[in-house]
Amino acid sequence: MVRSCAVFVLMIMAALTGHRALAAIGDQITIGNTRVVVRTVIGTFEGDIRTLALEDDVYHNELIETEQESATKLIFLDESTLTLGPDSSVVLDRFVYDPDPSNASLVMTATKGIFRFASGKLPKNAYRLHTPAATIGIRGTVLDFAIAPAERAGGQAVVTIALREGEATLGGCRGEQLVLEAGQSIELSWDPDEPCNAR
């Protein structure tokens, strides 16, 4: 009798665990997938870590990281693309692909590495890239940017941005607003321990 009860309890626990796993999968909102994967690319979503392969889905609020000598290219539902070079890290904060332009958005936070972003079909003012030293607003744009994180406490993160096509607005941590046009580049730095007022 005791053994039967124990087996029954284990079956219920297994069923509940499976239900929670299915619920977690259900909470994942697919926003794009991988088009290129070189070596080791890691996705982390709500504590679950996976190694990404070619054409794997990527999710709203997922952390994407590349290891040394690794790279990936992501394509989102609006056909915008983000390429990550070696030793890079970005969180896919929010993606809304909505026929109503006022609701559409793609927001990401990059903390280190080398990137290239090309905007897609969302309205020009729907894109936001957060970095340690600035927030980048993208307007029909292809841009490269690199982030060198602070190497020590009190050190400064350095963000280098080079605009290839289109236009981008930059909100610096001191509250300054700048506009970059095709062919222009800029380098910004900021102590990540200090409050950043970038908009």
Span of the ends, CA to CA: 65 Å
The CATH class designation is Mainly Beta
How large a portion of the residues is in β-strands, by DSSP E?
over 45%
Count of discrete domains: 1
CATH topology: Jelly Rolls
- Whole-number average pLDDT? 86
Helix-strand pattern, N to C?
Answer: HEEEEEEEEEEEEEE
The CATH architecture designation is: Sandwich
Question: Which outline best applies?
Answer: globular
**What class would the helix/strand composition place it in?**
mainly beta
Helix content: 10-25%
Radius of gyration: 20 Å
Description:
- The protein contains 1 helix and 14 strands.
- Helices cover 13% and strands 52% of the residues.
- Mean pLDDT is 86; it is low at 1-26.
- Strands 1, 2, 3, 4, 5, 6, 7, 8, 9, 10, 11, 12, 13 and 14 form a 14-stranded mixed sheet that branches.
- β2 (41-45) and β3 form a beta hairpin.
- It is mainly beta and 199 residues long.
- It has a single domain (31-190), classed as Sandwich (Jelly Rolls).
